């Protein structure tokens, strides 16, 4: 069975602080995809990143970076120099390689960035 | 701009009513999904459809049904709404053909916040 755990329910930081959102996953598949989505107050889930299980390179995109470690089944997300606009709920998700028919989402982490 | 459109942003219905939540996508995607989002539980899959008139149960199908008469439209039906179905409902779509080539995975609608009183 697949499972995604996001142990942090809510995080509050002050603007310009760095913050890391944790994601731990469980799967027996050898090929799978990991995702991060952002859900701002408007409600729509916005895609941030996708990683396949064979690519453990860390990714940096502007203030966002991701650390994928298969050895610990983790796919953590760091926001550097956080901004108020980063306030949202962030979901980590896992999908087997079956053409997108099964996603498993974590419970989400609500990030509040205070001015 | 391609998108998934959910017809209602907010709905308030009475217990026992039959409720229809509509979702339309303009990307010619084969797969469509209905999720329910509750605090602390993340998104849970109710039903999905991989083709017109096809449907598969997700993790929590009880109390719900779906209809997919056209490729672009996927409807979620609450046969007799109950208060424990008060939630945020999210529709999503994806294409098997794009799955390995395109990064975004699912495309989501903005959600329908349903309150059953």
Structure, explained:
The complex is a heterodimer of chains A (115) and B (117). Chain A is mainly β. Chain A has strands at residues 3-5, 10-14, 19-21, 24-26, 32-39, 46-52, 59-61, 64-69, 74-79, 88-96, 104-105, 109-114. In chain A, strands 2, 5, 6, 10, 11 and 12 form a 6-stranded mixed beta sheet that branches. In chain A, a hairpin with a 2-residue loop joins strand 7 and strand 8. Chain A is globular. The N and C termini of chain A lie far apart (41 Å). The relative contact order of chain A is 0.34. The model of chain A has no long low-confidence stretch (mean pLDDT 91). By secondary structure, chain B is mainly β. Helices cover 3% and strands 51% of the residues of chain B. Chain B has one helix at 96-99; strands at 4-6, 10-13, 19-25, 31-38, 42-49, 56-57, 64-70, 73-78, 87-94, 107-108, 112-116. In chain B, the strands form 2 sheets. In chain B, strands 2, 4, 5, 6, 9, 10 and 11 form a 7-stranded mixed beta sheet that branches. Chain B has a 4-stranded antiparallel beta sheet with strand order 1-3-8-7, with no helix packed on it. In chain B, a hairpin with a 6-residue loop joins strand 5 (42-49) and strand 6. At the A-B interface, strand 5, strand 6 and strand 10 of A face strand 4, strand 5 and strand 9 of B.
Blueprint (SSEs and pairs):
The complex is a heterodimer of chains A (115) and B (117).
Chain A: E1 3-5, E2 10-14, E3 19-21, E4 24-26, E5 32-39, E6 46-52, E7 59-61, E8 64-69, E9 74-79, E10 88-96, E11 104-105, E12 109-114
Parallel strand pairs in A: 2-12
Antiparallel strand pairs in A: 1-4, 3-9, 5-6, 5-10, 7-8, 8-9, 10-11, 10-12
Chain B: E1 4-6, E2 10-13, E3 19-25, E4 31-38, E5 42-49, E6 56-57, E7 64-70, E8 73-78, E9 87-94, H1 96-99, E10 107-108, E11 112-116
Parallel strand pairs in B: 2-11
Antiparallel strand pairs in B: 1-3, 3-8, 4-5, 4-9, 5-6, 7-8, 9-10, 9-11
The count of DSSP E runs of length 2 or more, i.e. the number of strands of chain B, is 11
List how many beta strands of chain A DSSP finds. 12
Rounded radius of gyration of chain B (Å):
14 Å
* Order of helical and strand elements of chain B: EEEEEEEEEHEE
Radius of gyration of chain A: 14 Å
The H-and-E topology of chain A, N to C, reads as EEEEEEEEEEEE
What is the strand content of chain A?
over 45%
Shape of chain B: globular
**Assembly state:** heterodimer
| Largest two-chain interface | A-B, 26 and 29 residues
* Poorly predicted residue ranges of chain B: none
Instruction: Detail the poorly predicted runs of chain A.
Output: none
Given the helix and strand composition of chain B, which structural class is it?
mainly beta
Q: Mean of the pLDDT scores of chain B?
A: 90
């Amino acid at each position: 069975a697949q499972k995604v755990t996001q142990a942090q329910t809510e995080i509050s930081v002050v603007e310009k602080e760095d913050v890391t959102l944790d994601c731990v996953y469980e799967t027996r598949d050898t090929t799978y995809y990991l995702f991060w989505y952002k859900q701002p107050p408007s409600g729509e889930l916005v895609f941030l990143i996708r990683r396949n299980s064979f690519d453990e390179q860390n990714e940096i995109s502007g203030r966002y970076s991701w650390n994928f470690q298969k050895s610990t089944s983790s796919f953590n997300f760091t926001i550097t120099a956080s901004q108020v606009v980063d306030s949202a709920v962030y979901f980590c998700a896992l999908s087997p390689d079956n053409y997108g028919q099964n996603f498993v989402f974590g419970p989400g982490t609500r990030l509040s960035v205070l001015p | 701009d391609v998108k998934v459109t959910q017809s209602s942003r907010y709905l308030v219905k009475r217990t026992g009513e039959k409720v229809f939540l509509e979702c339309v996508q303009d990307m010619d995607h084969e797969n469509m999904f209905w999720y329910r989002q509750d605090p602390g539980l993340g998104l849970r899959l109710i039903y999905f459809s991989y083709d017109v008139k096809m449907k598969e149960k997700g993790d929590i199908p009880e109390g719900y049904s779906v209809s997919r008469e056209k490729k672009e439209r996927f409807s979620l039906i609450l046969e007799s709404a109950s208060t424990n179905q008060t939630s945020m409902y999210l529709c999503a779509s994806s294409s098997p053909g794009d799955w390995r080539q395109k990064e975004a995975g699912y495309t989501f609608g903005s959600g329908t916040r349903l309150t059953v009183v």
